[in-house]
Structures are given as C-alpha cells and as structure tokens.
Amino acid sequence: MHPYNSLNLALHVGDDANVVLQNRKSLKEQLSTASGLPHMAPMFMNQTHGANVFVVDGVTDIEPSADALITQLPGIALCVLVADCIPLLMWDQQVNVIAAVHVGRRGLLNGISAKVVDLMRMMGAQQIQAQIGPSICGLCYEVGEDVYSEVVAQHPSTRSQTALGKPALDLRSGLEELLSTLEVPTEVVPGCTAEDLGLFSFRRDGITGRQAGVIWN
Ligand SMILES: [Zn+2]
C-alpha cells in the first residue's frame, strides 16, 4: 500500500500488518522456489541500531532485538530490513555459516560487523565472503558537522560531500574498508536508495517501507 508499495516487509513502519504478512508469505514462497527447499523459514529481527548479535538455533516467530543474525542451520533465511542503511550479508561455504547484518551510521561506529566476523570465525569460518546491498550513497547522505566529524574520525574513508558541498558520509566506503582490514572479500551491489525510485528510502520519503537483504543456507 502507498507509500509502502511494493513488497514492504517491515511491520514497524505503519503499513497494514495484513499486507506486510502477505508480503512476507510471498517472500517465503519465492525463497522456497529459489532454494528448492519446501519449508524455507525467513527470520526477521527487531533492529535497534545496536550491537546485539543473535545466533539462530531454531525456527521461531519471535523477532529478537538485534542488528545481526547468524546461523549454521539449513532451511532458515536470515533477513535484514533496510531503507538507506546497508544490508550486509556474509557467508562461509565450508562450514555453512551465514549472517545478515544491519549497518547504519551507528552500526559502523559500534563495531557490529567486526563482532559478527569474529563470531563466524569462532564457529569455524575461515573463508568468509561478504556482499553489501544498495544503500544511500555518499552524495546523498548529508549530515551535520558534529556527526560528520565523529564518523570520519573513526572511519576516514566515509569522508564525502553533497553536490552542493555540504558534509556527507559514504558509509559503504567505510564498511568496505573495515571488511578489507578484516580480510573479508566483499562484493558491492551498486545502487543508491535515495536516487533509485525502485528502492525504499527513509531519507527521501520519511514514511516508507523496508526492503530486505536475504541469505539462506
Ligand atoms: Zn545517492
């Protein structure tokens, strides 16, 4: 439903819950088709821009308060909901460990991505790969001077400016650099949520839906 069209997957943004649940059901069917597993279970989380990591050890309808989900179980699809923040997906094929991480400005500062990489390595991962999905770009993500200084001090590669020369942050560059120092090869899916009208953008629209980054075993 407008302004959530189409395929909004988030229950917390004011959309009709029945429509969202229908959208999630449709995602479940698509996942089952794509994976060839008849009972693929998507798992969502209640994202708080915090650093909590939740290890999924069984299928449940409860959405844990976390910004990262990790699992080694087959038949579970981990979903991260975004509208400008970065959906980060990671996996290691040898030990079948997968992760979905929500990385916004606060997530970049609180170190959640490094925490997930550490945990995956503790679970036996030795060849983690990552994919960064579409998010707001460095030209569009204008911020105030104080926020700019705080983030750039910790992640210099986020330094950016808008077309009009206002301070801005390139969170993708910051995350790419971080993953590179962690020795995790990363593929970046291009696209800016604020510029691409086919994607949800909180910055552009305020009240809007959430798309999902999804990974499964
Ligand atoms: Zn942009």
From TrEMBL:
Family annotation (Pfam families): Cu-oxidase_4 (PF02578)
SUPFAM superfamilies (UniProt xref): CNF1/YfiH-like putative cysteine hydrolases
GO molecular function: copper ion binding; hydrolase activity; S-methyl-5-thioadenosine phosphorylase activity
Catalysed transformations (reactions): inosine + phosphate = alpha-D-ribose 1-phosphate + hypoxanthine; S-methyl-5'-thioadenosine + phosphate = 5-(methylsulfanyl)-alpha-D-ribose 1-phosphate + adenine; adenosine + H2O + H(+) = inosine + NH4(+); adenosine + phosphate = alpha-D-ribose 1-phosphate + adenine
Keywords assigned: Hydrolase, Metal-binding, Transferase, Zinc
InterPro entries, A to Z: Cu_polyphenol_OxRdtase, Cu_polyphenol_OxRdtase_sf, Cytotoxic_necrot_fac-like_cat
NCBIfam families named among the record's database cross-references: peptidoglycan editing factor PgeF (TIGR00726)
Family to which this protein belongs: Belongs to the purine nucleoside phosphorylase YfiH/LACC1 family.
Identification of the protein by name: Unannotated protein
Organism, as annotated: freshwater metagenome
